[in-house]
Amino acid sequence: MTAQDTTAQGGGGGERLYLLKVLGPVHVWALGVGIVLVGEYMGWNFSVGKGGALGSLIACWIIGLLYTCVAMIDSEVTSTVAAAGGQYAQAKHIIGPLMAFNVGLYLVMAYTMLEAADALVVGDLLVQVAAETGYAALDPKPFVVLTIAILAWLNYRGVFMTLTVNFVITAIAFIAIILLFLGLNPWNPSESLFHKQLLTDLPYGWIGVVAALQFGMWYYLGIEGTCQAAEEVRSAGRSIPLGTMSGMMTLLIAASLTWFLASGLLPWEYLGQSGVPLYDTSRMTDSNGLQVLLFIGTLFAAVASANGCINDAARAWFSMGRDRYMPIWFGAVHPKYRTPFRSIVFLIPIAVSFAFTGLLDQVITFSILSGLLGYTFMSFNVVKFRNKWPLGTIKRGYVHPFHPIPAILLLTLCSATYFATFLGYGTSLISIMIFYIVASVWFAMHRYRFVYRGDQFTMPWPRPIGH
């Protein structure tokens, strides 16, 4: 090992430091659901503005199918390629360096911008509550910085503590949705919910449903982040599939309940532009207890999501540094806490700068598009994975059924969502495509020469079929 390698791993001696294997299925669930559950508290409702309440529900279920395919595919490949970086590590082993660089960048940008959106929600929620209770107008920016700084410190100190905290606050946020549902007496909905009066036909027709697919992703965006824990779980073959699939089931329940409650109390015209729709829903109940509960739930969901995003973005960036796709300096492991501490600290100002724009829908759109590019990659990746290493040639922790139907379905739904994004945010779509093309050119012309191809393939697999 060279002195540079030793320094990059965070140690001062000759022993190479590694991330600790301390996580179980409950932590994987907390990471995946923790990142996503904020989407039930905000963001999803912009799909109502695109397609009406019924259009949003259709988008919720269609995109739920997309993410079920993502969860199934990820569970198989990640439980086999058990390395930090998740989909980045998969691309490195299965396709090649240029694809791996792009996938790593998709992950970092998706999670960093989602983190910025979460911090924005925390700041806006506290400002709104302060205004409702008679306090002078507050500036949300200090709350944004404080949220990101505290969570970055938590991530810096250790992954076990970080995801244990995430499990607790995510569980509270999920229970808050259940209690709101029970508090509205769903067995007699006509007494407290007004779907008959509020639900209309599709206001913009089926083209509105297609447009709603973009923000329908917010119900589930980030569940693929469970892959980032692959190197730190005690048993990847058990923890990744169990944590990911149970997380997806949790989100399908939470998404359906969220739509049912909000659409039954808020007119679709208002719901489609609300910043905190579930909190606004609780305000319509005339129950101070439910209002306080949903304030806590919204706050906890946003904090849990930002916490998980810091974890995932840092591990993707750390993995790219460790493999020299980025400067090896970022591949350092803290000698005491065994965390990718330099990557955590480096990404803080980037998240803060996105949050300071205050453009929640634009930040969400950039996060969605980065995630969507990653999902498109998955559909090709799993086909190449099965072709290169057919079943029986290597040990898999999980085998997803019905191959290649999930891959084909995923690619089809991704294509529809690109079109949906183009309808409302065509400029953003083109801009982010140009960004990734420029980044690819930079990697090919400048950074690629630092990558050691011989060090890329770290899995103990036989030579792939056809090579």
Explain how this protein is built.
Its main location: membrane. The chain is mainly alpha-helical. The chain has a single domain (26-455), classed as Amino acid/polyamine transporter I (Up-down Bundle). It is built from 18 helices and no strands. The protein has helices at residues 3-8, 25-36, 38-41, 46-80, 87-94, 97-132, 141-157, 159-183, 189-192, 195-198, 205-216, 236-263, 268-271, 277-283, 288-322, 341-356, 360-388, 405-447. Helix 4 crosses helix 18, helix 6 crosses helix 7 and helix 14 packs antiparallel against helix 15 (288-322). The longest helix has 43 residues, at 405-447. Mean pLDDT is 89; it is low at 1-14.
Give the CATH architecture.
Answer: Up-down Bundle
Count the beta strands.
Answer: 0
CATH topological fold name? Amino acid/polyamine transporter I
How many helices does DSSP assign?
Answer: 18
Rg, rounded, reads 22 Å
- Distance N to C terminus: 30 Å
Task: List descriptors.
APC_superfamily, transmembrane, Amino acid/polyamine transporter I, 70% helix, single chain, 467 residues, disordered N terminus, mainly alpha, membrane, globular, Amino acid permease
Q: What topology emerges from the helices and strands here?
A:
Elements: H1 3-8, H2 25-36, H3 38-41, H4 46-80, H5 87-94, H6 97-132, H7 141-157, H8 159-183, H9 189-192, H10 195-198, H11 205-216, H12 236-263, H13 268-271, H14 277-283, H15 288-322, H16 341-356, H17 360-388, H18 405-447
What is this structure, in a nutshell?
The chain is mainly alpha-helical. Helices cover 70% and strands 0% of the residues.
